[in-house]
């Protein structure tokens, strides 16, 4: 909706200024400019997985499906398979009270991409 662009043609990409023969191809063309690192996508760091999500929490959940992903207890040396096990462990072993520190768990994710 910028009114300052000079003489854009219908079907012209405002990123690379290429003119497409069909206006309907424009959205798909523009997707080729999408930078996977820009903003929205979280990608599974595990080699060969290719899982992508726009929601960070989903990635964390997904990571627990990889057997080589471990959660490291911040209070001792124990590693656990998933966030809920870690939570139970921390509650029972360390008297941890989950509160506003939900994101804390993420800090202790150890990616092991062998
Ligand atoms: Zn373009
Ligand atoms: Zn994955
Ligand atoms: Zn512990």
UniProtKB/TrEMBL annotation:
Q: Which domain of life is it from?
A: Eukaryota
Q: Where is the C2H2-type domain?
A: 42-71, 71-98
- Kindly give the InterPro entries that the UniProt entry links to this protein: Znf_C2H2_sf (IPR036236), Znf_C2H2_type (IPR013087)
Which keywords fit this entry according to its UniProt record?
Metal-binding, Repeat, Zinc, Zinc-finger
Gene Ontology molecular-function annotations: zinc ion binding
Q: Which PANTHER family match?
A: C2H2-TYPE DOMAIN-CONTAINING PROTEIN, KRAB AND ZINC FINGER DOMAIN-CONTAINING
Protein name listed in UniProt: C2H2-type domain-containing protein
Name the species this protein comes from: Agrocybe pediades
